[in-house]
Amino acid sequence: MTLAPSVLAADFGRLEAHAREAIDAGADWLHIDVMDGHFVPNISFGVPVMRGLRALADETDTPFDVHLMIEEPDRYLEDFAEAGASVITVHQEACPHLHRTVQAIHALGCRAGVAVNPATPLVMLEDVLGDLDLVLVMSVNPGFGGQSFIPGSTDKVRRLRQMTSGAQTAGAGRPLIEVDGGVSPDNARALLDAGADVFVAGSAVFRGDVAENVAAFRRAEMRTA
């Protein structure tokens, strides 16, 4: 399990310190949710927040997992790459020329991910799977943190794992499967068994005792199905 806490749920009054708590507790990545108020009905933050966390990420060797919930993401890829993104994920629904966008991400030296909304069928990714490093399954409708997990998402992850089992990326192996939305220690084991690799969690990490919340995910990882 790669745990990627979403800083959208962190305390912005002490953002770096709160993010450090998660990293010190054993989180693997920092997930950066970028929203523009157009593609999704909310506005979050952008490159300046990433730059503010850059020293922490560099010091701890923590990858930035950037999730662009925005229209026309191609216009901003270079900015996020320069701010330190390791993975840049765009939405299938926002990219009319998805293959070109994925190529542009790779050309910037980043791993390329594509996200699909709950109502988007996985067949929409068939022709680009071999070019992807990561596929993000949205398990809530994107735009707001703290939403409830859509139960059918677990089966969607399972079907995606079957689809990707034979796909070889431009890097090594099959694309990683990431899940974002309502992820918690209560459903983590089922998602892991279904084939998920990367777990995005906002409130489930940053609300309350961060170290204990991360430990709860690790206990879920060790549980027998």
From TrEMBL:
Pathway: Carbohydrate degradation. The keyword Isomerase applies. GO terms for molecular function: D-ribulose-phosphate 3-epimerase activity. The active site is at D33 (proton acceptor), D180 (proton donor). NCBIfam families: PRK05581.1-4 (NF004076), rpe (TIGR01163). Catalyzes the reversible epimerization of D-ribulose 5-phosphate to D-xylulose 5-phosphate. This is Ribulose-phosphate 3-epimerase. It comes from Rubrivirga litoralis. The gene is rpe.
